[in-house]
Design a protein that fits this description.
With 448 residues, this protein is mainly α. Helix content is 76%, strand content 0%.
Amino acid sequence: MEQKRENWGSRFGFIMATAGFAIGLGAVWRFPYMVGVNGGGAFLLVYIIISAIIGIPLFIAEMGLGRKTQLNPIDGMRKLTKKGSIWVAIGWLGVAAATIIMSYYVMLIGWMLAYFVKMITGQFTGTTATEISSIYTAFTSNPGQVVVYTLIMIVILGVIVNKGLKNGIENCCKYLMPALLVLLIILAIRSLMLPGAMEGVKWYLKPNFSKINGKVILAALGQSFFAIGIGFAGSFVYGSYLDKNNSNLPGDATIIVVVNTIIAVVAGLVIFPAIFSFGMSPTEGPGLTFITMPNLFSKMAGGRIFGGAFFFLVIIAGITSGIGFLEAITCTVSEVFKIDRKKTVWRVLAVIFVLSIPCILSQGPWSNVEIIGKNLFDLADYISGSVLMPLGALLISLYIAKEWKFKGYMDECNVGGGKFQIKRWWKPIVILLIPISVCTIMITGLIQ
């Protein structure tokens, strides 16, 4: 059945929703541990430069394609080219990446919810580092508990997206995003007040240029695409809900990337000053959130309150990003296969839940099951983040260079723009630097 497409109700709502999709766990969970294992300030500097030079133009391009077509990424690329064209793979790859990401993303948000409950109920109070590590292992290896928390988050996401663009996604993000930023600032202030916190600030904000190498640059490049939300179909779909002649694409995209970067930086100011204050290591990796942070809050005065607030804001970030992934899949499936939107939401979530089971079991009963040396959780992350996402982003960059041409990209995306617009000097960045960079990420990811 033919369904009337909605448009964003306000510019603020669009910016908050798209920023929420871009930020997610990539900014407040993945970014801090990537900083920790890649040299602190050196990684931060490279990340900011890459986000500005490469992230913004590519982000504008993906949203611009959505706005130009006013369709989902599959039908949109069919409209611009033809059915069966290689460029239609941009849509298929994006939706596939979003689906696979959601298969473990709902599990991760479920973990955050569980840790929020554990924190506010005092389960980490008075515990040692070894006991906290044991709590993490016991919880993640218990499929029954994880399934319950995962289902709760699936229902929350379904209820929000089922209400539609304005009443569900936009209204939700208009409140959740400011709340996330306020909570982050409060926690950062608390962290900065700890004795010895300035050592963590120096490590985090003062770049050690000797730490900058190929590995750090590639890690920053990959994190930029992951955090901004390029190649996941969400930017395309969110862009398709924009009014063609009444939206400032370059300005809004830049604001979204800047907000994303600010929140990521502030998240680091929550974590690293406190870590250095208590003499912990910033190089914990993915366990930084689930092992180091509870250990930190267990030692901090008022730790239960601040720890609860921390995990609550991470849940908010996960929900706003999960909404974007789910909307990208729902919109595409509903429009391509002509299925009622409300039915599509729950059918998509049912598929995502089924796909999440192997990821959940990979932390417990199926922990020994490996494919190409990876458990099922890591395999899902690898396929989506190292194969599908960069391949989709590469195709977008090649489409600009080969089919859209730089002038077409510039003219289309500047429609409705304000003072900040795409300039002619962007051409070598868009036509050469971006495709080479994305190709490098993909090849390196596959090799590693």
